[in-house]
Amino acid sequence: MVKTGKTAEHKGLSVINSPRRRQLIWNRIWRSRYIYLMILPVVAYFIIFKYVPMWFLRSGFYDYKLLKGFEGSKMVGFKWFERLLTNPDLFRYIKNTLTLNFAALFILFPQPLIFALLLNELRNKKFMKGIQTISYLPHFVSTVVLVSMITTLCSPSIGTIARFVKLMGGTPVNYLSEPRYFVMINVISGFWQSVGWDAVIYISTLAGIDQVLYEAAKIDGANRFQQVLHVSLPGLANTFVLLLIMQVGQLLNVNFEKVYLLQNTLNLSVSEMLPTFTYKTGMESHNYGYATAAGLFNSVISLILVVIANMVSRKVNEISLF
Amino acid sequence: MKKCLALFLSLVLVLSLGSSLADDPPLKQALIDAAKTLEPSKELYFENGLEISAMGMIFNNYPTEFDGCYLWPAVEKLTNTRITVDWRVEDNYSTQVATVLASGKLPDLLTAGAYGVSNLVNEGAILELDEYLDLIPHVVAAVGEDRMAKWRQADGHIYTLPTIVNVPGSQTVMVRKDWLDALGMSEPQTWEDWIALWRAIKANDLNGNGDPNDEIPLALEQGATGERSMASLLNAFGIRASSDCQFCVLDDGTYTMVYEHPRYPEFLAAVRDLYAEGLIDQEFATRTQAELFTIMDSNKVGTCMTWAERCRISANALRDLGDEDALWEAVPPITGPYGDQMTQEREAVSSVWCITIAAKDKIEDILRFFDWWFAEEGNNLYNYGIEGVSYDMVDGVAQLKPEMVSNGFVDYRQSGCEFEPFGNEWQTNAFMQCLFAGQPMDALDAPSAEFYSGLAIINNGKYYSMPQTIATEEYTEYRAELIQTGVCTLRDQCIAGQISVDDFFASYKTLKDRGLQEVIDAGSAAYALLSGK
What we know:
A: mainly alpha, MetI-like fold, about 75% helix, about 0% strand, disordered N terminus, B: alpha/beta, D-Maltodextrin-Binding Protein, domain 2, 2 domains, six-stranded mixed beta sheet, four-stranded mixed beta sheet, 21 helices, globular
């Protein structure tokens, strides 16, 4: 293989395109055909759902009509972008988006790591498995069901929390219509739903850390906490940083369903985010051009954030996605 | 263990299936069998057959399969028209319409639903029907000259085939009669009476659970689409609001948004005070219809306004739970501080089907079919089923068999009668027969009598014809941004004390500058066009 590569380098593109070279590539693919077969659905997914839709981003410059398509729709230039950027609520949407998502990022993102470390320290394997199973079951509860549960729990007339507050001598509050509680509700419910499942990747990484390192640490006199600090945490660092960068990339889009479903007119001042605004503009008002413009704006901010996160990560600990 | 669980689940499934099969109304199968033996109609029969495909929105418990009720086989036998409807659920129906539009594969008929007829017009997806009105004289007659404006869209044109309900009542204000009695109070007559009643409900442990603070004096709900919370109170202040409580017609005939009504500031301040005093509870802006029903059935609500049928259902639910005296009394609308007392009349003419451009070549046949459908033969089929099976003609008047109406509207509809998602004109005669289940009023139990009273008696003379929400281009463009998440949010924030009344109007002015004024102007112009003023 190395030899072939050098030959190609020396003899230029004509060699790369030569039948022999093509045959070699084909043979290599054939040898790994099952690996390629496995990756095929993922590639197809990304092409169909992530790349093909990019072609429709130009609808942000049209008064786009679904049935008429681009040919029948009127081009409006930057009209929707102007409307978005002159929307006096835009700053609030961005602020809410960042607040809700950064709160989730800073509070929730480290939790699975901590949870995985705690689980890893349990010596009773059956107990550990039990806790693990119980903790990741909420992941399988759909967002709609989760929101119904939250709504029922928080209801001041029939909710469990209200009953508890009354028992304690307090006055129940409609937490879902009080803007100041919205971020907290979002974070707590997110913790319940995701901490167990998100810990799985860290648990598997922990299982892959060479036991010799722990033995060596023990011989050096490290206690349990020091083993976690000097062996487990460095072993998880790469995974943590990569997940963090990817999370930052999705920062403006996470929580959309839950936030949208938890919205009401009384908490809208803190719950209206760019993605929910985009959804309403597109799917409720059927103004697809405006929605695309808002979505594109959202994506640009996401891209900027991921580039910054990647840059910071590369500078700080030499780990980066690109 | 796993096997036992699997066996248990299988048994539950089988039993559920069995119970659902056993729930069929008594005459449903007889109607289906009779439909398959009908002779061709003398009024309309397509020798070469007519195939109509459709996508519509299903609700209630209507059967969705082609042979799930008598209707479609009967239509096929009578007219040689095969109607295949792709029924979709109400939730996210507009997204489903968008998907069909994006695919480019349109059915012949399409229900616009929340997607909006005006949006379909803008898409160029549906055909204008103005020039074909002479093909559908029975439809035009059913709508009636005085209601033509409600059939037309904002641009003055007709694009839809309607469904018509000539019965004004649907919702009513209701009060817990047993709580009234316990308080020694009588049915409120004035605004002051209402306030006194709400205060008394708040101050007393009327449900007897030991907690004097869990009774809700006036429970408001958002309605199926989040639009109705304010209807009963707007009406009490003399504001004749549209069904979504956004538009009204002023005394001088001007069509505008309710926020422009001279009484609106007073209304807002009064409702804000009710909230501050706890007479309207904290969930007024978040409560869904289902949640209202839950708290009504949980013995927590003193007064509310909702479907009249809840008088019966909720009272029976409470009685089943042991509160034998529980009774919801249907009462006339809330009287406001100026003595206004009114309630919204049910929308008589509603749009159902749009004929799409895919059916351009057979539009005349489709319209001939619908004219037959609205004529006597089709209309009887819709209202009463099949003669001799589900109804008899007595002195020239259709009389539904007792088995059809013994369970009110439930069996009647589950048999396929009054298939509202497909639409036609619902005869008042059929409605009344179902309503009273073939019994005189004094033979009904108290909860049922209240239901019938709320639907057909107590509100008579108080109804007003609702102004339309005219879906102009401006309304469509700004609805989500400036109305639903704009002024509605401000209204609720003001009521909940998050902003002042002055702040509300200052922010409302900003919204007007951003486009709401365009919505008002376009709506006003369209109203003038439609009403011929």
